[in-house]
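quick one before i forget lol
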Amino acid sequence: MNFLKNLSYILLLIGAINWGLVGLFNFDLVAFLFGNMTILSRIIYTLVAISGIFYSVLLFRQDDCICKTY
């Protein structure tokens, strides 16, 4: 489970950086590296979306909550 959390976090960072570049400079890094809507870029976009859903579910789980206050 720790591997999935780390992978999810990395993919979310990639997505955040990509959206930041799109918003600031109208530059899509994923499309630049892998082509505009190629199979590989669509897989990356899908993995980022799944990671966002996975990480948001983790936010609200009691036993594995990443937002604990100590």
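fyi The radius of gyration is 14 Å.
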